[in-house]
Amino acid sequence: MKFGFIGAGNMVSAIVKGMTIGGGGYDGKDIFITSKTVTSAQKLADVCGANVCKTAVEVAEQSDILVLGVKPHILADVLPNLQSAIAKKQPVVVSIAAGKTLEYLSERLPKDTPVVRVMPNINAKIGASTTGVCANASVTAEQLAQVKQAFATIGSVAEIPEQHFGIFSVIGGASVAFAYMYMDALSRAALKAGMPKAQALDIVAETVKGSAEMVLKSQEAPWVLVDQVCSPGGTTIEGVTTLQAKGFEAAVVSAFDAVLQKDIKIGK
């Protein structure tokens, strides 16, 4: 199985490293990479033992699974040049571009091309991505399993109906930034109160990690857990009611809506 990557930015680098040096079990000799200047592709290939190609067409000609790792606005320029190579090689085409639907991709590829949309997040850099996938009708169960297996090297993978893919892009992608902001705000508050920020950040990150594990393992609704933390007349309920009074939940929902609308706009 040969994998090709067009683009060698942060996300592609995380994926290729997860597949190879991260212990994913893939041989770099079976991976072909190119990038706009080829420089970043060469650096990634050197680290992972992969092959560098001068053009996207060369990558497509080698690939059983072809990953489009370019920005959404670049796709329209890249896809026309790949038509002939994709028609001949007939790879599974995987897109990690936000907002670009299966329909958008299929219309710009040879007829009946198997297409998979994948949305990883930046935590892929440490093998902890939450990744969503959906596929068009031309993708076989075996092909989808091969794509999921590759992306499982950078974290968890979930199949998402395409009508929910924009939602996933928010809660599985953009929300990572929200979590970072929350942790930074708590750490800065601790700094203000007198604790070294580095120590505070370690404590906050471990607490968020433990809280996430609690939600996943207890199978209890977050508000049930909130009630368990809040004692009558205690300190935690003061913080919870202050967050509510300051619009914490409303701000999160508004941020969700803003990201979703931008995702829809990109898709158009």
Give the gist of this structure.
The chain is α/β, with parallel strands linked by helices.
Mean pLDDT: 95
Strand content: 5-15%
Uncertain segments: none
Major sheet attributes? 8 strands, mixed
Q: Which of globular, elongated, flat, extended, rod-shaped describes the shape? A: elongated
Task: Report the order of strands and helices.
Answer: EHEHEHEHHEHEEHEHHHHH
Order of strands, main sheet, comes to 3-2-1-4-5-6-7-8
- Helical content class: 40-55%
| Gap between N and C termini | 34 Å
Architecture overview:
This protein has 268 residues and is an alpha/beta fold. The protein contains 12 helices and 8 strands. An 8-stranded mixed sheet has the order 3-2-1-4-5-6-7-8, with helices on both faces. Strand 7, helix 7 and strand 8 form a beta-alpha-beta unit. The protein is elongated. It starts with a strand and ends with a helix. The model has no long low-confidence stretch (mean pLDDT 95).
Keywords:
268 residues; alpha/beta; 12 helices
Topology:
Blueprint: E1 3-6, H1 10-19, E2 31-34, H2 39-48, E3 51-52, H3 56-62, E4 65-68, H4 72-78, H5 83-89, E5 92-95, H6 102-107, E6 115-119, E7 129-135, H7 141-151, E8 155-159, H8 165-193, H9 197-218, H10 222-229, H11 236-245, H12 248-267
Parallel strand pairs: 1-2, 1-4, 2-3, 4-5, 5-6, 7-8
Antiparallel strand pairs: 6-7
